Sequence to fold (153 residues):
Amino acid sequence: MNPTAARRAALLVSVLSVLLALTGCLGPRPALTVLAGAGVLSLSSDDPSGSFSLRNSGEEGSVLNWTVRSSSPYVIVTPASGSLRAGSLQQGVNVRVEQGQLSRGEVLSARLEVRSNGGDASLAVSFEMLVDGLSACGSAPEARARRSPRASP
Fold:
């Protein structure tokens, strides 16, 4: 295909896409809603699991396709992807911190990125490895370490 024909074909596809969008032929639009309290999951070694919910609050008949990724290899989400019809029940997403590689008193901060065809969102996850069931806050500075979200195991 010569360059002029390729440009014409691309222009035709663009015009048709705009016309379909204006006439509603592309179908109902989904909309992502994240239900997570204050948008922060605070976890500790006493309770290393938490959860949040996703909902499709879009137009009737729409389907929301979503994925969740963690900025830390220590923060595990299940399920990590799925689909939701508008008006259906919420989808619970479980969050768990793998503690095996973390030290006592260590603090971990991570972000969960929710991507979907109905919008994107993010949540903060904070986790503290307690020392004998107590927070390391207020103790000597060397008793507390910070691990960046991109730390490698």
Q: What stands out?
A: The helical segments are 3-23. The chain has a mean pLDDT of 81. Residues 3-23 form the longest helix (21 residues).
